[in-house]
Amino acid sequence: MFLPKIGAENITEVNWNFGKVGVGLNLSESDFAGEFTVSAINIAFEQKELNIGFEFNPVKYWILFNYQNNTDEFIEDSKISFINAALYWDLIEKKSIFFGPVMSAHYMFVNSVTGISMNDYIFSGGLRFSYQINKHFKYYNSQIISSEIGYRNITGKNKLYFSVYADVILVLISIGSVKQYSYENNAQ
């Protein structure tokens, strides 16, 4: 009896992208915060049969805009995180559509004011929906548009969050197209 050859190349898929650009809201009873994020080089390992995956990126830039309801105080904080990982489960079998639970953790933040902060962290758990074009490119996982909704803990503060992300290459192409269109209209 012959057994099928089983190896990591048969059950695991590795894909990557240049990064994501995102905006989001973090809401709690006492405050709400907006966020702008940019990540660089996302790498994902996915078990093909179960559609369970692990993704990480080495650097993510955050700008958090926080508004305190009780004091009418507006705080802006920009920082970079160097440990960024997510665990996900894709419940849909289609290669171009992703829907399922996701948990992510971000740690080791560096801020220009306080330096390295070992006490700051962001933990998120929720649902992700995205439209991907990795079906057309073998290893490049371009999430054209991706959104998440769920629970987030930002250094001990409980929040609900909603975020929307786009592939950084598509954002750059869009910006270039708008600038070219603007240049062509102004030249006439």
Radius of gyration: 19 Å
Question: Which strand order spans the largest sheet, edge to edge or round the barrel?
Answer: 2-3-6-7-8-9-10-11
Tally the structural domains: 1
Mean pLDDT comes to 85
Q: Return the string of H and E elements.
A: HEEEEEEEEEEEH
Distance between the termini: 75 Å
What percentage of the residues does DSSP assign to strands (E)? over 45%
Pick out the low-confidence regions: 1-6
Give the biggest sheet. Answer: 8 strands, antiparallel, barrel
Can you count the beta strands?
11
CATH class identity: Mainly Beta
State the helical fraction.
10-25%
Note the total helix count.
Answer: 2
Overall body shape: globular
CATH topology: Porin
Query: Judging by the overall fold, what is the CATH architecture?
Result: Beta Barrel
Structural class: mainly beta
Structure, described:
The chain is mainly beta and 188 residues long. It has a single domain, classed as Porin, CATH 2.40.160. Helix content is 13%, strand content 63%. The chain contains 2 helices and 11 strands. Strands 2-3-6-7-8-9-10-11 form an 8-stranded antiparallel barrel. Strand 8 and strand 9 (115-132) form a beta hairpin. It is globular and about 55 Å long. The protein starts with 7 loop residues before the first helix and ends with a helix. The model is unreliable at 1-6 (pLDDT under 50).
